[in-house]
């Protein structure tokens, strides 16, 4: 077994452990940190597969931006962890069904990919050509063959951002909110009162 294969299996094992930590962590912040660790290991796997662009995007975009957004949302939502744990067993059957569906989808993708070994070997052969750029090839596929799925993913992310903002802006008891319209429409005479006082006489 070569060194790249050993590194691949080692980082893949760490990735699986980090993914399990995401779904088993009791603290939402700890779960988010486990997800950051999983993203870093995924980036290393992309580097081992010579997909440098995807590795850099995963490290910069997901770890640097998306995870920071996750942490801010978790902190601003003020999640009641004890209340969330009470309904865990109630949704466990649904979670198991969804997990089985995901496993079936992954197995189907692996099976379909095994049927196209000739195309994969042709793509691998083209990657050995001098001047080949996998970033350019990825961009050409993304904005030609997979343009509509790419746009749909962008719309879904936009909806997620709007939903996070709406959840954080909800009214809660004892919380003071800023009314920008009233601040802009304020007048000086309504805020400042000038009082005339007689000058004090020196004794």
Q: How are the elements arranged and paired?
A:
Blueprint: H1 3-24, H2 28-48, H3 52-77, H4 81-86, H5 92-115, H6 117-127, H7 134-142, H8 147-168, H9 180-184, H10 188-191
Helix pairs in contact: 1-2, 2-3
Explain briefly what this protein structure is:
This protein is mostly helical and 203 residues long. It has ten helices and no strands.
Account of the 3D structure:
This protein has 203 residues and is an all-alpha fold. The chain has a domain at 1-83: NADH-ubiquinone/plastoquinone oxidoreductase chain 6, subunit NuoJ (Four Helix Bundle (Hemerythrin (Met), subunit A), Up-down Bundle), CATH 1.20.120. 74% of the residues lie in helices and 0% in strands. It has 10 helices and no strands. It has helices at 3-24, 28-48, 52-77, 81-86, 92-115, 117-127, 134-142, 147-168, 180-184, 188-191. Helix 1 (3-24) runs antiparallel to helix 2 (28-48). The longest helix is centred in the first third of the chain and has 26 residues, at 52-77. The radius of gyration is 27 Å and the shape is elongated. The mean pLDDT is 77.
